[in-house]
Amino acid sequence: xxxxxxxPAFASSGSTGLVPHDLTTSPLSWIAVLVFLxxxxxxxxxxxxxxxxxxxxxxxxxxIWVIVAISYQRIGQSDQVDAFLSHNMLEYAYLLLxxxxxMTYINTMEERGVFDSLRGWLISKGFTLKGIFWITGVLAFIxxxxxxxxxxxxxxxxxxxxxxxxxxxxxxxxxxxxxxxxACINIVVAANxxxxxxxxxxxxxxxVWQAGKVSFGGFLGLLPSALVNWLIPAFIxxxxxxxxxxxxxxxxxxxKYGAFVVVGLFVFTIFLAVTFHNMFHLPPMLxxxxxxxxxxxxxxxxxxxxxxxxxxxxxxxxxxxxxxxRSEWDTLMFFYGVILCVGGLGALGYLxxxxxxxxxxxxxxxxNILVGVMSAIVDNIxxxxxxxxxxxxxxxxxxLLVTLTAGVGGSLLSVGSAAGVALMGQARGIYTFxxxxxxxxxxxxxYVASIAVHMFIYNLSF
Length: 462
Known about the structure:
Layout: H1 7-15, H2 27-44, H3 46-49, H4 54-74, H5 79-111, H6 114-124, H7 129-143, H8 149-163, H9 167-171, H10 174-195, H11 203-210, H12 223-239, H13 259-280, H14 284-304, H15 306-311, H16 320-325, H17 329-347, H18 350-362, H19 364-377, H20 380-390, H21 396-408, H22 418-426, H23 433-437, H24 440-458
Protein name: Sodium:proton antiporter
GO molecular function, one term: antiporter activity
Transmembrane segments: 27-45, 57-75, 87-106, 127-144, 150-167, 179-197, 217-237, 257-276, 333-353, 365-387, 399-419, 439-460
């Protein structure tokens, strides 16, 4: 998830010695868990009750942190609450700014006609919906280890939506809607699997690498398992795809002035994010924001260019802040709620307690498998952080196993990974929690098979 956009928060948490107190036996802490479960249930029922997913988790976050504050006041440690909350807010700030930049670039490329032109090219080449399904899946698997799974998923989903004729056309055609749903699930699984065998493809892989548990090149040992994790559900999905071609384009599409420059700036922005982290040990968010500044400068040129005025004479002059405003704010606010809810439960000691039970009672293999399941329900970042904080005695193969399961386990549910949550916002009303849940069985087959392949390679046992 997101290169390393929130790793400094975790690093500083460990270095300052902020260890949560075990307050899990308090009735107040039970209320916090209940509040989280109610909010999460409302998120799951979004399709039924038509309540946007961000609203319940934002309210739950406020309630949970009030409970955290009261609980720590009772033990005379109220000064630690601010420190815990500051770390959580730092996590969210990095995530928010990273996502804002990625979404703004995608919106700008869409406005410049990049995705419409790509759609026209794919249609002109005669690709069927099944062909486009595999193209976007392969690209998601290949690109996510180099960039990150979230940005990759957003890009590929934009291509799928554009190829299908836009959201309005998708909602009016059941076959097209089914294709988009399966393509989005395929992209989420492929992006998460691709990010699992690279330190930069997912935040959990980066955390394991920074902790010195696996060497930089050691992550390549997860490539066979990650490939199996994606290919098995992908083949299953492909059998249910409608046998059709994309809707023909009746209107001529062409790239607007500056489209290729915007694409180039986006690639350079990803390069900046990686470079800022690797060379200067700065959060990748800073590289992304620098890239946004470059886009804003170029946007000023577009706004005042005579050639751009010719392109935009029907819809008004280009304004970069219009593209920034079009970001999926429900998704951004949802991440706020989830990070603070999970952070609050962590401050009450629940994450450490669960991890202790896993490794102390079940043993490493079962525990590592369940970590992946937990990451689909809660979030892989705090779960992995709890594992690293416990620092159990694990072999090299077991550290790779927990890295794999934490990375790909989030694919089991749409809310289990940043890629899934972002796509629910991008394809609102089409790719939903329930539409993803219908195919969880196929994703679970890939999850189990990838674990079996990994255990065979590293000779692990239960």
